[in-house]
Amino acid sequence: MAKKYLSKAKYWGPGGLSLTPTDRVIFREDIDWFLPKRIFDVHTHVNLGVTGAVPKVSLGLLKQFQKLIFPKRSCNNLFFAMPPRNGQTSDQVNQYISQQVRKFPEKSDARLFFVDPGMPAEFVREQVLQTQAVGLKVYMTGATAKNKAEAPIRSFLPEKHIKVMNELGLMIMLHLSKSKAISDPGNIRDLEVLSKRYPNSKWVLAHCARCFRPGLFEKVVDRLNALPNVYVETSAVCDPLVFMEVFKNYDLSRLMFGSDNLVAAGFRGRYIECGLFWLSIGQPGFQWGQGMFAGQPTFVIYEQLRAMSRAAGLVSLSEEDIHKIFWDNAVALIKSIRQTRK
Ligand SMILES: [Zn+2]
Q: Is the pLDDT of residue 197 over 60?
């Protein structure tokens, strides 16, 4: 069969954005039985490119890729910008999203506004209302703390912004900092304090509360279950043991599917545990080997989905729960946000 490349950028790795025989086997054996017909992906990016580093991803390319990798499924999205890089500004990355939304309007999709901590609260309120965003995306690169890798939540998400989200009943998509992620005593305590102090705000913890490796999520799962306005999404986690911890013990009415497509999950590779940290393999420059050692990698998103399906099989996750994770929970949350704002 002729290969259909959606993008020939080297960034994506061997096979690019097309389906290889390896991809087809993995989809058929590990994903097809598990993936519902309707998908709502709460973590996708539309982004400007950085020459020589990151390809530009339009909403059109994102949707074409989803058609390719999720055959016979529909997929709606919550999308937002990538953090600005190489001299880009937050205004530019947000404007690109607005432009793409005008080009491909779809009622069931939703967007977030990318915010940095220096923005005045009034500006954030105006922008969120004007762009119809359902909330904010924040990221540690904007942290005021010197060591961004260990930045506390308030260092990149000031309380003045949380107050606005609380008043409007909107969402905060939070990619936590700190090596112990949600199990860091400071992070879990701050989340408890802030989510209780602002009960009308909705918190979504990206990447299984940034638990890319096992042993972290289970430490705080009971405390997370006790926070009714805190949710968790699954993007880019490729470890079945993490999903076992989540599926077994987390409140599944607050778990939502996210992928991190396209730039962070459309390349070929995997996020793996290594020592006491985690890393991605397969990003540009990675050597997959040659001859008899030649690797045939698949997309990160396929690694994530098969990790989820394997864990689901092992804990006997019900079909009803699978549907909730891939559709019902996200749709209900976004609907409730939109209704409150009317
Ligand atoms: Zn992301």
A: yes
Q: Does residue 182 register a pLDDT over 90?
A: yes
Residue 334: exposure state from Cβ atoms within 10 A (0-12, 13-18, ≥19):
buried
- Distance in angstroms (rounded) separating the CA atoms of residues 57 and 49: 7
**234 CA to middle of ligand 1, Å?**
11
201 Cα: distance to centroid of ligand 1 (angstroms) = 21
Question: Ligand 1 centroid vs 45 CA: distance in angstroms?
Answer: 6
Tell me what pLDDT residue 144 has: 83
What are 20's two structure tokens? Answer: 């290889």
What distance in Å separates the CA atoms of residue 93 and residue 75, rounded to the nearest whole number?
23
Confidence tier at 215 by pLDDT (50, 70, 90): very high
10-341, what's its fold? TIM Barrel (3.20.20)
Domain ranges of the chain: 10-341
Q: How far is the CA of 259 from the centre of ligand 1 (A)?
A: 8
Quote the distance between the C-alpha of residue 169 and its chain's center. 21
pTM tops 0.90, yes or no: yes
Distance of alpha carbon 199 from alpha carbon 181, whole angstroms:
22
Q: Nearest 5 degrees, angle CA 94-CA 100-CA 105?
A: 120
Q: What are phi and psi of 270, to 5 degrees?
A: -165, 150
128 near 341, Cβ under 8 Å? no
**Ligand 1 center to residue 9 CA distance, Å?**
20
Above 70 in pLDDT, residue 228? yes
CA of residue 290 to ligand 1 center, whole Å:
31
- pLDDT surpassing 90 at residue 55: yes
Q: What is the pLDDT of residue 3?
A: 52
Interstrand relation of 202-205 and 255-256 (parallel, antiparallel or unpaired): unpaired
Rounded to a whole number of angstroms, the distance between the first and last alpha carbons of the chain is 50
Kindly give the distance from the C-alpha atom of residue 264 to the centroid of ligand 1, in angstroms, as a whole number.
7
